[in-house]
């Protein structure tokens, strides 16, 4: 048996192959929901550095939504495919968790057993030797077997770069795209170029990782396969086992690819059931990793007026006559007739607040970056009243109230089963309610809120993605159990797009 390829290493290598496929395919599903990449955080039309769509963006705000830009990928390519970003995000979260566990165990064992020397160079001679190997490969040759101990210098540099540079950078940029991180540690996110900088770097690392995997698998079969395959499959240095190792390797690759594709079709066969499963296994990690992070946008100094975006995307258009004649009439009367219903069935009394009533409450003013779960972002100064202060006007919280439901004058863009559209709503828990940056805003950048961004008042929940931030707010109510509303998943985007109730990442 070859001591360079113990059983634990071969098992982790296989597991890594399976998990990387889940990460890449779910990542492509997420990218297809907004197939554009920017370095600018305002994602202004025409400023993309890369796009995977021929569709050009209009320059005017509020006429084009991010859902209009969404593309559908085949389940053969992405996980799960067919415009299911919610499930794609859940699979990405589960894949990331398992990949991190597997990777951490791999690195620990690598150093504990001394096998780190097999991939980490210990001499500067690795660079001229790597150059020599590269020239041989470019000439469609292959270095002699003596260059491999068990890898040649070029492979060693490649492994070291992927494991200790590219993979950590993917982790760091992935974390930077989480609202919980951004609202708690804004300087960290800004250091990476903001949300769009992190997203673009993450994409570049993904491309590097993909190319490395293709090249690595190809070299296994093309360069001294009679030695490589027995080692990788059986931990044996016996070339006589090459045919057996080749057969097992090909069968294993086919089986893994079939497994990836099967995950897509199993997910699409019953999307709500898959959402329940994925949320159940990922929510504990989400709560432990991000639940303790509280936003502090009011006190942060990383983002200033200079960072305010010139352009702001939207997801959803203002209510039409088919959705809410009431909202249109209030808009045309400059919101003089707007009333915010505060209360719910759990209490005996309720309030009907005017816009002036909301403005009379202590103003909460801060600069924050909004992110949509599809990937776009924009930075604005928001002003409004804390949701907790509004509900306090009702008196003590009902003893059995566990959540707050916020409902819009607008309707859902599409229901999961294509039934008639229902009012858009979101539910937040008490922990999120008590955060300082859970605010009903009425002003953006010192001006009244624009119609396409939620006028006259919209919810801001800075620790979460934008799908929790209801626009054109109609009512705020105490509730005991969100499972009896809508499809019972805690919000319109949870119901229709199968997002997670906890939108912190």
UniProtKB/TrEMBL annotation:
<dbReference type="InterPro" id="IPR016174">
    <property type="entry name" value="Di-haem_cyt_TM"/>
</dbReference>
<feature type="transmembrane region" description="Helical">
    <location>
        <begin position="156"/>
        <end position="181"/>
    </location>
</feature>
<feature type="transmembrane region" description="Helical">
    <location>
        <begin position="6"/>
        <end position="24"/>
    </location>
</feature>
<dbReference type="Pfam" id="PF01292">
    <property type="entry name" value="Ni_hydr_CYTB"/>
</dbReference>
<feature type="domain" description="Oxidoreductase molybdopterin-binding">
    <location>
        <begin position="332"/>
        <end position="481"/>
    </location>
</feature>
<keyword id="KW-1003">Cell membrane</keyword>
<feature type="transmembrane region" description="Helical">
    <location>
        <begin position="245"/>
        <end position="268"/>
    </location>
</feature>
<dbReference type="Pfam" id="PF00174">
    <property type="entry name" value="Oxidored_molyb"/>
</dbReference>
<feature type="domain" description="Cytochrome b561 bacterial/Ni-hydrogenase">
    <location>
        <begin position="5"/>
        <end position="235"/>
    </location>
</feature>
<dbReference type="InterPro" id="IPR000572">
    <property type="entry name" value="OxRdtase_Mopterin-bd_dom"/>
</dbReference>
<feature type="transmembrane region" description="Helical">
    <location>
        <begin position="201"/>
        <end position="225"/>
    </location>
</feature>
<protein>
    <submittedName>
        <fullName>Molybdopterin-dependent oxidoreductase</fullName>
    </submittedName>
</protein>
<keyword id="KW-1133">Transmembrane helix</keyword>
<keyword id="KW-0472">Membrane</keyword>
<dbReference type="InterPro" id="IPR036374">
    <property type="entry name" value="OxRdtase_Mopterin-bd_sf"/>
</dbReference>
<feature type="transmembrane region" description="Helical">
    <location>
        <begin position="97"/>
        <end position="116"/>
    </location>
</feature>
<keyword id="KW-0812">Transmembrane</keyword>
<dbReference type="InterPro" id="IPR011577">
    <property type="entry name" value="Cyt_b561_bac/Ni-Hgenase"/>
</dbReference>
